[in-house]
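Deliverable D4.2, example record:
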Amino acid sequence: MKFGKILIANRGEIAIRIIRAAKELKLKTVAVYSEIDSDALHTRLADEAVCIGPPPSRDSYLNITRIISAAEITGAKAIHPGYGFLAENPEFAEICESCAITFIGPKPDHIRAMGDKIRAKSTMAKAGIPGIPGSDGAIETLKETKSIIKKLGYPIMLKAASGGGGKGMKIARNSKELESGFRIAQAEAKAAFGDDRIYIEKFIAKPRHIEVQILADSYGNVIALGERECSIQRRHQKLLEESPSTGVNKNLRKKLTKIAINAAQSINYQSAGTIEFLMDENKNFYFMEMNTRIQVEHPVTELVTGIDILKNQIKIALGEKLLAKQEAVSLKGHAIECRINAEDPDRNFAPMPGKINFFHMPQGLGVRFDTHIFTGYTIPSHYDSLIGKLICHGNSREEAIARMKHALEEIVIEGIPTTIPFHQKIMDNDKFIAGNISTHFIEEM
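Output generated by the structure prediction step:
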């Protein structure tokens, strides 16, 4: 379907990123906002802006009826969900289709299939893609869980079937931790996703979190844009990403590329997406999940490949063919992204909303800062604490680190605590500099 106007069903830096991509494609944009976001930057940069409700997400950014109404009132024939909120909600995608509105993302069936982690693992296993050893499906009782663990052995990971963002995940190293973890994982899964189904996987000690970005059009063309290293996390939430990974060599990259493309083709996937893997210390890798949306960390891939992922995602929704071919995709240099959050690292990363008294943007060759903040902006307490993504690119990893260090020194955000000092510690960490990292990096610093 052709469309000339896009409604962005999101806020913050990703809303601005989508607006910029749309403008380059000569498309008009509509911003939606909650009452507390009336002065937000995305409302100023879009061609039109519509208030969709009070500050709580359920009454605004998660209110499907109001978002669809905003699209119909403004004549927007397409909706881009960004990430978070409704980005991986298959019902929302279906409602868009029923209202003759193009959902800029994959088909509802793909969102549903990959959103259910148990179903996703089964689907990928049928396509010959290795998964982490564990239960074949959801587990309902402790007795059933203990029976499976007899074969797997401890430690194991309890995971929510509809999981994401680290919610509904618990490690059990013995029977005592299993009993408490089972109840907590179920309760967290129910509260976060309305689905208390959980499954178990063998716990992999000190893995790397590796993901492969793909783009797939409606003509069967799929390209993989290299891998991203996302191992530096706290409470299963990513803090820093880079591309390429220091743990992936040329041969392994070729193998991951082939698997990611096969995974997308096996389900006739369309749009931008990410195939995520865990890789153990022996470089064995296992399918973990597929994200059916644009990722927070997509800029590092854009900087090393020169391919605009957002614009391509929109073009795919417009029915266009991918112009890039896999053989033409190459990784040039190295890129690192630091997520800048309004959080206090010294208080267990507690969110710190408040007014920004002064803001100075870092600059220089190879420096990019995706953000929605400005001097005088007040960060609301109702949403995610991410306020910007600092991305630095260099001809080598050493140069990217050097540029990130001076960019972190140059950026000024006064009035609230941020994670900037914490990222500075990472840049000076010997293990990070050596590329010796895993998902346990933060707790071992």
